[in-house]
Design goal:
The protein is an alpha/beta fold. It is about 20% helix and about 30% strand. β11 and β12 form a beta hairpin. The chain is globular. The chain starts with 5 loop residues before the first strand and ends in an 8-residue tail after the last helix.
């Protein structure tokens, strides 16, 4: 993990989502990325570390990545941040969850709509927003020093599914090659599901998106 930001990974919920707690050790400011089902259990950990949660970040609007939005926004009084193209999906999140047999609380409206290249402050550091559509229209990744939170864009030797509304395999592969594969090879990929990997490894070995643009 990088020296300027700390990252903790939690695999939670029936779909084994990764929720990430990212914080600045100096200021104790923190953001929570993709709070999934059963993520409420992280509230004591946030308090144990003495952190001030300043935002909930969503890589995209699918229900398993933001089922905890309402809880954390209320519990810690912080805004939800999501890419501007993902707002319609976020609003329909409870309906889509019901199609898969889940009941989740509606998300609050975003306090800030993100765009490509935006910076999200975390204490003295920040996360840079990359718009990476393909899994969903407003899918985004968040880049820190030495790592990228890739949501359902890029996995270890796999990529996000593209058979959901707004998905496109060609667009997803283009996003990965244009944005993620331009990051340094040693960049750690922290995905929405499954184990971490490295950009350089995925460029060489990912069977769905491997290879230079």
């Amino acid at each position: 993990m990088p020296d300027d930001l700390r990252v903790e990974t939690f695999s939670l919920g029936p779909l084994e989502n990764n929720t990430y707690l990212v914080w600045d050790p100096a200021s104790r400011e923190a953001v929570l990325v993709d709070p999934t089902m059963d993520s409420e259990r992280l509230a004591p950990r946030i308090r144990e570390l003495g952190l001030r949660l300043t935002a909930v970040l969503n890589t995209h609007g699918h229900f398993d990545h933001l089922a905890g939005n309402a809880f954390f926004a209320s519990e810690f009084g912080c805004p939800v941040l999501i890419h501007e193209d993902e707002q319609p999906i976020l609003r329909e999140m409870p309906f889509y969850a019901s199609l898969f047999g889940f009941t989740v609380a509606p998300s609050p409206e975003p306090g800030r709509l993100l765009r490509h290249g935006d910076l999200v402050p975390v204490g003295a550091s920040s996360l840079r927003v990359l718009h990476t559509p393909g899994h969903s229209p407003g899918g985004a990744c968040f880049v820190g020093n030495g790592f990228v939170l890739s949501g359902d864009t890029l996995f270890a030797q796999s990529v996000g599914r593209t058979d959901l509304p707004g998905g496109s395999h060609d667009t997803l592969v283009e996003s990965i090659r244009r944005e993620l594969f331009q990051l340094p090879d040693k960049t750690e990929v922290l995905p929405g599901h499954g184990p971490s990997t490295l950009i350089g490894f995925e460029k060489r070995h990912n069977p769905f998106a491997g290879g230079a643009p």
